UniProtKB/TrEMBL annotation:
Protein name: Pyruvate carboxyltransferase domain-containing protein
A Pfam short name: HMGL-like
All copies of domain Pyruvate carboxyltransferase, residue ranges: 4-262
Superkingdom of source: Bacteria
GO MF, one example: pyruvate carboxylase activity
UniProt record, GO biological process: gluconeogenesis
Cellular component terms (Gene Ontology): cytoplasm
Cross-referenced CDD domains: DRE_TIM_PC_TC_5S
């Protein structure tokens, strides 16, 4: 009987997609020892964008989160990843230093995503990650377009395998895969990766991801990326419990501890109820998703931005504009950060009164190749218009500044620890960093949701006006005075 393994996304992509990234360290830490018992092949834990989110929105130090959770889950490899190059043109020296620092803090795997599958950048990331002792997971980011054929992905997979990737995963951030396409894509990729383990990471945006997962494991995919049921479905990943049960019907086995899995699920269901977070539910099929391809995790943020600008009533119009921009620009993959760049350009095209009257630096850089080779040519008229812009001429020969770590330390402070130094270099809000670093040790007290009586007692004993507590159920009686 063939065994499949599970990569858990609950603590990173799932809550980023479904809860807008609002899960705190306190919500994770009490259940961490139980998660460690489940038997996950690895755990998707943190990305650069979520590190910045910790600082800006939760006033938490992401290095503390990584260290504490790594200590609490010694048997489960934690995955950290991101796209450093495309967030503020981070120097190579920082990317290399970041890989060493996350390894020292407890990460054991690194997820390498490049939105253009730029092999120059991917090769450097593999080299630096291997030197840091990290297992490399390289993403084949799926998109639906005339340019993104099985042959395209097979070729990229061969390049990744040749570059030394330890693992490769199909990353369907837009939920665009269909069972039919899975049946052709997976064999094409497997043929070119010479036995390197292949994983699949999908979102349920169109509702098809669970079906694609089952097709994928039948064809030879070894690991599936799933979330526990309270944080699954919708814009998130498929439900772990559902995939586990269906795969078992097809003759696959797993080494998961299902009792621990149930406790983990109970805990996060409790967190959702306590915090007012949504529970993931399956979605209806949406054909429009194949045109605009806005990822589920971005959609909630985009709606909030439109509401802030008073444009929320123009959502469908702007999604149509996003679909047109994708065609204009040669079908860029709608994944961070390109999806955000295209979403911003759509708003500019709408509000400026003329399409491409104003073009962001990021879109110009994409068009002239600063983010890597384009999958398809830019529309000739759009390209001509962008190339005529004065700002384009300024950026044609621009190269991102390549400061050394020594130069940056002199700029940000020579007495900073490695972790504090990276917070300074990579954060978008220095005042938020000041607040986090000045706050001192933080309390991460939170009830265990899989132990409802203990959670109830914990909550009741925190009430200052309570003199005694009595809990009685069936033959159970607890009195606290």
């Amino acid at each position: 009987m063939k065994t499949i393994t599970f990569v858990d996304t609950t603590l990173r992509d799932a809550h980023q997609s479904l809860w807008n990234g609002q899960m705190t360290t306190a919500m994770m830490l009490p259940i961490a020892p139980v998660i460690d018992q489940v038997g996950f092949e690895s755990l998707d834990f943190m990305a650069l964008i979520s590190m910045d989110w910790c600082i800006r929105n939760q006033q938490e130090n992401p290095w503390d989160r990584l260290r504490l959770m790594a200590e609490a889950m010694p048997n489960t490899p934690l995955i950290v990843g991101g796209v450093l190059r495309n967030f503020g043109d981070v120097p190579d020296s920082v990317t290399e230093f970041w890989a060493k620092t996350i390894a020292a803090a407890g990460a054991r795997r690194i997820r390498i995503n490049d939105p253009c599958h730029d092999m120059t950048e991917i090769k450097k990331a593999i080299k630096w990650s291997n030197a840091a002792g990290l297992t490399t997971m390289v993403a084949l980011i799926f998109s639906y377009s005339p340019a993104h054929t099985d042959e395209y992905y097979a070729g990229k997979a061969l390049e990744m395998a040749t570059a030394g990737a330890d693992r490769i995963f199909i990353k369907d951030v837009g939920g665009l895969l269909t069972p039919e396409r899975t049946r052709t894509l997976v064999p094409a990729v497997l043929k070119n990766i010479d036995g390197i383990p292949l994983e699949i990471h999908g979102h349920c945006t169109t509702g098809l991801a669970p079906l694609c997962y089952l097709e994928a494991v039948k064809l030879g995919v070894q690991s599936v990326h799933t979330a526990v049921s309270p944080l699954a479905n919708g814009p998130s990943q498929p439900s772990m419990e559902n995939i586990l049960e269906n795969a078992r019907h097809w003759g696959f086995s797993t080494d998961l501890d299902e009792k621990a899995l149930e406790a983990m699920s109970d805990h996060f269901r409790y967190v959702a109820k306590r915090e007012g977070f949504p529970i993931g539910i399956p979605v209806e099929y949406d054909l429009f998703q194949y045109e605009h391809q806005v990822p589920g995790g971005m959609m909630s943020n985009y709606k909030a931005e439109l509401k802030r600008r008073g444009l929320d009533h123009r959502l469908e119009e702007l999604l149509n504009e996003i679909a047109q921009i994708r065609k204009d620009l040669g079908y860029p993959i709608m994944v961070t950060p390109l999806s955000q760049y295209i979403g911003a350009q759509a708003i500019l095209n709408h509000t400026a009164g003329e399409r491409y009257k104003i073009v962001t630096d990021e879109v110009i850089k994409y068009v002239i190749g600063h983010y890597g080779e384009l999958a398809a040519p830019v529309d000739a008229d759009v390209l001509e218009r962008i190339m005529r812009m004065p700002r384009t001429k300024e950026l044609l020969n621009w190269e991102p500044p390549q400061k050394s770590i020594e130069e940056l330390r002199h700029e940000y402070g020579t007495d900073l620890s490695d972790q504090d130094f990276l917070l300074r270099v990579l954060s978008s809000n220095q005042k938020a960093v000041d607040k986090v670093l000045g706050a001192g040790p933080k309390s991460y007290d939170y009830p265990r949701g899989d132990k409802p009586i203990l959670a109830l007692v914990s909550e009741l004993t925190k009430r200052k006006n309570t003199a005694s507590v009595c809990i009685e159920k069936d033959d159970f009686l607890l009195e606290l005075c």
